[in-house]
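User: Can you help me understand a structure? I only have the sequence.
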Amino acid sequence: MEPEFWQQIWQQNDIGFHRASEHPALVRYWPHLAEGMGGPVFVPLCGKSLDLAWLAGQGREVVGVELSALAVDSFFQENGLTPQTSAVDAFNQYRVDGLRIYQGDFFALSRRHLDGARLIYDRAALVAFPSDMRRRYAAHLDALFPGPARMLLVANSYPEGQMDGPPFSVTADEVERLYAGNWRIELLERRETIDEHPGLRKRGLDSFISEVFLLEK
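Assistant: Let's start by predicting it. Here is the structure, written out as tokens:
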């Protein structure tokens, strides 16, 4: 998707992907992600997710990246936080104790921006891209984390042709194609969640499979 698409989504407040609480899969599988590996947690395409605050509450430094300045401003305002702001390379950096968000293009990130992070939490990034951009996204993420690293990935899939994304349908087979070359992949959970998403039913879906993966390199 072009950057203008996401800017418009936030301006129109068309953000059905935003959750009013932390994601249950993050809470459930945080021990799997964090076990034996310290350092910050990186959250790509973080929006104004409450997962950021939850992660910071676990005593970890959190580094996010988000294209929309409106989303970043909303996160800090809604959580009663006043960040320090500065220009860092191609980004506007927002920072409070324990949390930093780079407002700008994910593809402009380099390893030096990530403050030594080795953990990744991807709940809404991979599924936000159409297929050609998913390959580019996965390759750039792989380059940002040469290893060792660990990722908790939440993906979703649905019947082809029933709905145009985002969120796009990303099957377990595609996760394998994108990451199996450098990452060991473990499926932690697979379940039908369409009853939790009435808005997706209205868009034509009769199935919405959520899958949670743990990836390690």
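Now, to help you interpret it: The longest strand covers residues 184-192. The two ends are 28 Å apart (CA to CA). Let me know which part you'd like to focus on.
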